[in-house]
Amino acid sequence: MNKKVLLTGIKPTAVPHLGNYFGAIKPALSLVSNGDYDARLFIADYHSINTIRDPELLRQYVYEVAATWLSCGLDPEKVLLYRQSSVPETLELNIILNAFTAKGLMNRAHAYKAAVDRNREKDNPDDHGINMGLYTYPILMAADILLFDANYVPVGKDQVQHVEMACDIAQAINHNYGKELLTIPEYIIDEETQLVVGMDGRKMSKSYGNSIELFLKEKPLKKTLNKIVTNSQEIEEPKDPDTCNVFALYKLFATKEQQNELAAKYRAGGMGWGHAKSELFEVVNAELQPIRDKYYDLMDNKDYIDEVLKKGAEKARNIAAQKILLMRKAIGID
Ligand code: TRP
């Protein structure tokens, strides 16, 4: 029985926070781990160099991404885990895709357009500070996807357009050569992922500076949770759980009973914010502690991570090499 291929990439560019955990990591893990798919997950390190120019930092982020997924439950025996850069066939396919990608298609990519808009706001020339890596980002991403004949690509909303572009490019190639050389991928977005509020009540995002890192150790975690913005109600006053940032986060970690209990304390009055925050700490810490312990163990044992990635690279290259042979033959470069 041939399972459908499910593939996704993670760009190593920042330390993961709770928004990533609930919005991306957990949903992707439940998809790749359910056994229904031939699942592949890779670390998109070539995509990162568009913005990350410090080699040590990039190395560090790559380890962090691998350790994050492994500690959150990814089983490398069941899910193929590899680095994009371990599969140079990606770059060969990238060149082929370039030839079939309309420049105008790239002009319409959201990330590029947003960068141009920012330049216009500041009265800079349109392409100021924009590198070709950003401009052609969707082509490299298409290569990642098409090289592995991915049927399904789980992504965040901001990446949907890129998967659609991969379809466009694949169709142009299939049309030209008159056969189904490349599998047309479909994106999957998890509609049910909860919105995670940040410390100030806006959506949790690194760029808002309101995020809570996933692997904070106990003390800094406590300190960070204590800084969550609340209103200035006095201890005696009854409080509304439904408009409270502390409670919004509590809900993500607590059981229904725990939620009802804390909500009752809010409404009864006599509970201060310090108390609500320490209850929050308890549930957050209970869920994250085992993951965090595993994470720091892995980060102390990079040889293990190297080994996992090496094994993954071998398998991935095998698949990729066959695909590239096929492509070369089809286009007349063999
Ligand atoms: N662009 C994706 C992101 O920023 C990462 C990525 C790179 C990716 N290549 C991919 C995702 C291929 C899915 C498939 O999140």
Can you give a write-up of this model?
There is one protein chain. With 334 residues, the protein is mainly alpha-helical. The chain is built from 14 helices and five strands. It has helices at 18-32, 45-48, 55-71, 89-99, 103-107, 110-121, 132-135, 137-147, 160-177, 218-226, 245-253, 256-268, 273-299, 302-331; strands at residues 4-10, 37-43, 80-83, 152-154, 186-188. The strands form two sheets. It has a three-stranded parallel sheet. Strands 4-5 form a two-stranded parallel ribbon. β1 (4-10), α1 (18-32) and β2 form a beta-alpha-beta unit. α3 (55-71) packs across α13 (273-299), α4 packs across α8 (137-147) and α11 (245-253) crosses α13. The longest helix has 30 residues, at 302-331. It is globular, with a radius of gyration of 23 Å. The chain starts with a strand and ends with a helix. The mean pLDDT is 96. The structure holds tryptophan. The site of tryptophan (TRP) has 11 residues, from β1 and α8.
